[in-house]
Design a protein that fits this description.
Elements (H helix, E strand, L loop, with lengths): L11 E12 L2 E12 L3 E5 L6 H9 L6 E6 L2 E2 L8 E3 L2 E2 L9 H10 L10 H13 L15 H13 L5 E5 L7 H18 L2 E6 L11 E6 L2 E5 L1 H4 L2 H8 L3 E6 L2 E6 L1 E2 L2 E5 L1 H8 L13 E2 L11
Parallel strand pairs: 3-9, 3-10, 6-8, 7-16, 8-9
Antiparallel strand pairs: 1-2, 1-4, 4-5, 10-11, 12-13, 14-15
Helix pairs in contact: 2-3, 2-4, 3-4, 4-5
């Protein structure tokens, strides 16, 4: 008598299939494809201006692709689909705004609704649980504009997760954070992905902070992308094909350095995108040219631009 198959299949949360985007006659994304499973921490890596933010906008349903499709839990994505947790690239938090951290988290439950919010035991309990999940209880009653960068990120992650999405998108959340705060945020996200079986897709221009926890990488360059385990994708052969010219991948003291060679049509200059990525080892993060500036209560169902 044959034994039943004991294989446990991890649910596929997100699938991006041959997505292309052209804006004002410029090819931003070119047939990008990848999938993210439940509980996976995926890094969306690439230089500034590579199209990472545009790709996130497509997934959120805020940017219509020129070709290809996006499905979440097997269903086509639209602004009115199942909510996706989203932490935008820029969030302006006025220090004088009389909003506590717990108030901002609660907006993730009812921030899109008009009229007065009725306090309820269930609502307050959900906020407390989410503040605990991101280790933000100690500053729950502090004004969000007075919190440090790392503390604000914890509150924004709680705001994005309180609606219990299966997919969490984060656009350059490590920008402007010091090394310690960035490491704490990454460890927090990895734990949440594992414990709550949420698929996490985090964009960054520098992959080294993510390497200890990253299950797979989606590397974007020149509008094209390659995805898979980092040790299979971040290689000279794969990245040279993406950039269209020679790129060297160096491993130095446990860090990965991506170094651009001269472009095929210009022996004296390196490709702007590859050069930006190499410079990212020494320079602070800069916003993508395609990035969006979001207000305090921006939700993925409405375009902020």
């Amino acid at each position: 008598m044959s034994q039943p198959d004991q294989t446990v299949l991890t649910p596929e949360i997100l699938r991006v299939d041959q997505v292309s985007v052209t804006l004002s006659g410029r090819q931003i994304l070119d047939e990008v494809s990848f999938a993210v499973q439940a509980g996976e921490f995926t890094g969306l890596i690439g230089p500034n201006g590579a199209g990472k933010t545009t790709l996130l906008r497509v997934i959120l349903g805020l940017q219509r692709p020129s070709a290809g499709s996006v499905t979440v839990l097997g269903q086509p994505r639209s602004p009115r689909s199942q909510p996706i947790g989203y932490v935008p690239q820029k969030v302006l938090l006025d220090p004088d705004m009389p909003m506590r951290a717990r108030d901002l988290v609660a907006l993730g439950l009812d921030g899109s609704k008009y009229g007065p919010r009725l306090r309820s035991r269930q609502r307050d309990q959900a906020v407390r649980e989410m503040l605990h999940a991101v280790d933000a209880e100690r500053f729950a009653d502090a004004r969000v504009g007075n919190l440090s960068g790392g503390e604000q990120q914890r509150v924004l992650i709680a705001h994005a997760l309180i609606s219990r999405p299966r997919l969490l998108l984060l656009d350059e959340p490590l920008a402007n954070l010091d090394l310690r705060s960035g490491q704490e945020v990454i460890s927090l996200l990895a734990r949440i992905a594992r414990e709550q079986q949420i698929a996490v897709l985090l964009s960054a221009h520098e992959m080294n902070p993510l390497l200890p926890v990253m299950d797979r990488v989606v590397y974007v360059a020149g509008g094209r992308a390659a995805s898979g385990p980092a040790d299979e994708i971040v290689t000279s052969d794969v990245l040279s094909r993406l950039y269209g010219h020679r790129v060297d991948v160096l491993h130095v003291h446990g860090r990965v350095l991506v170094v651009a060679g001269p472009a095929a049509d210009d022996g004296a200059a390196a490709d702007d995108g590859a050069a930006a990525l190499a410079a990212a080892e020494a320079e602070p993060a800069r916003a993508e040219a395609t990035g969006d500036e979001a207000g305090v209560a921006v939700r993925p169902g409405a375009d902020a631009s």
